[in-house]
Amino acid sequence: MRSAVVISPEQARRIWLHAQRLDERAPFGSGPEATRAAVERLGYVQIDTINVIERCHHHILWSRIPEYRRADLRHVQSVDKSVFEYWTHALAYIPTEHYRDFLPDMRAQRTAGVPKWMSTITEDDVRRVLRVLRLEGPLTIRDFKDDVLVEKTHLWASRKPSKAALELAFARGQVTVSARDGMVKTYDLPARHFGWEQSPRPASERQVHTYLLDRALRAQGLISIDSACYGERPPVKAAVRALVDARVRRRHLLPVTVEGLEKVPHWAEPAVLDAPPEPAADLVHILSPFDPLVIQRKRLAAYFGYDHVFEAYVPKAKRLYGYFALPVLVGDEVVAVLDLKTDREQGRLLVQQWTWVGAGETSGRRSAIESELERFERFQLAR
Fold this sequence. Notes:
Elements: E1 5-7, H1 9-19, H2 31-42, E2 45-46, H3 56-62, H4 70-78, E3 83-87, E4 91-95, H5 103-111, H6 123-136, E5 139-140, H7 161-171, E6 176-181, E7 184-188, H8 190-194, H9 205-220, E8 222-223, H10 225-228, H11 234-249, E9 254-258, E10 266-268, H12 270-274, E11 284-286, H13 292-295, H14 297-304, E12 325-330, E13 333-343, E14 348-356, H15 365-381
Parallel strand pairs: 1-9
Antiparallel strand pairs: 2-4, 3-4, 5-7, 6-7, 8-10, 9-10, 11-12, 12-13, 13-14
């Protein structure tokens, strides 16, 4: 086995930031093509319903595309159809070219039957909504008006059988989300939405594992098994580890030791290590708590020395940073955490709490962050 390349935590951070394209101000350009390229680079962009500030899928893209417009995401989902919605570790936008890698999960959902938490619906309910979609074309849940409301059996369940049936059909790949207006989804049949004469062929198990590994190498630069398989089960991690070992033998990947993290094996492609990124300029990024750089909390803490806690579900008296705290990245350091809220009626962005962390406040940092807050406010209020 080839001996590991030893790098510093600073180098590890730079590699990750470069892979995430957070070391440049406008790495993807602008317009719908920039949005498509960003989703492809990141692998997926998480969708979330929380609306204290702009929802995270728009926020994540804005962090990498300064001229990002919400219409750009609508375009790539509904016009170009180069992204689609499905589940990764959470609901997300994913490049359509990788649709086939999710077909095995969709088919597994079909054979699993109706989940216990959807016990108020039946297979007849699913067949009914599919029949309506075939006959009437793309529809939102608001277009299904003949439901008899039922009692909820689960916190996330719906009282409308049609809504639950659409959600189950979505998980099974029988319908897709063809458009969004806020969080209101329009559903359609996949073949009709994508214009397929023949549906994609499902990826094999090995192809899915290869996809997970390649996605992580592209989005992270430097990987561990846990970072590459975030949210995946142990058998998947074992399969990806076997792929990693095979690539190491062929010298397509090199083992890496990060100083201070010697117990966690890492790997990178030779080109990444041959041309390490330069120190990041002091760009300021106000990051979503669901940003790919933040969502893997253990990796964030190990690389940046910052433990992020999502405190929306923490009692107010026990919160450290605030209800909806956002890490602030300056260069390659997390230096502050801001609890923000958009007051849409008054047309302003409110700073509920400002907490310095890490190296904290130094000359010029506050003014640089305030300048970025002004840009962030303009994005929040733009329509």
